[in-house]
Design brief:
The protein is α+β, with helices and mostly antiparallel strands and about 160 residues long. The protein has four helices and seven strands. It is globular, with a radius of gyration of 22 Å.
Length: about 160
């Protein structure tokens, strides 16, 4: 299973009269998508600081604000972190994170199709018990391989920071 590596960017915004101009959802107490407790951008207000800058997008995951990690915080802690900033805010953001997570979740729910002739055995007594056992073992093996693939795809690579 091939997956695109996350893109991490640094964004600097200057607060406008109406603040930063975007809303967030998520946190360890209010998971927004799947089981990811991250803080996600859900709306960008027209004419707000984020819209005027144009870099931050709906679905981006905010990893840090002014050097403070938002990776394992409650929603309230994340909001407080934004409120406690000065006029200029520096964020580290994973672009398109929500779409990547949705794609991964959809792929996990897709049924695995395995041709049964590849796993059936013949025995003199009809072999029903053996065929059932082989199908269960193959299904378990497919699950293990898929899990290892996810661990390797998402656990080993460390994204690099770039600018948009």
């Amino acid at each position: 299973m091939a997956s695109s590596a996350p893109t991490i960017v640094e964004i600097e915004l200057r607060k406008g009269q109406s603040g930063l101009g975007f809303n967030i959802r998520g946190g360890i107490d209010n998971v927004h998508i799947g089981t990811d407790p991250g803080i996600f951008v859900t709306t960008i207000k027209p004419n707000g600081a984020a819209a005027k800058d144009g870099t931050l997008r709906i679905g981006d995951k905010i990893l840090e604000v002014n050097g403070t990690s938002l990776r394992q915080v409650s929603h309230r802690e994340a909001v407080r972190c934004f409120q406690d900033t000065g006029d200029v805010i520096k964020m580290v953001v994973e672009t398109g994170a929500e779409a990547r997570i949705e794609k991964m979740l959809k792929e996990q729910k897709s049924p695995v199709s395995v041709p049964t002739e590849a796993i059936e055995t013949t025995q003199s007594d009809g072999g029903d018990a053996q065929r059932f056992s082989n199908k269960r073992m193959l299904f378990a093996a497919v699950i293990v391989v898929a899990a290892v693939g996810l661990i390797l795809a998402f656990g080993i690579s460390r994204p690099s920071i770039s600018s948009r």
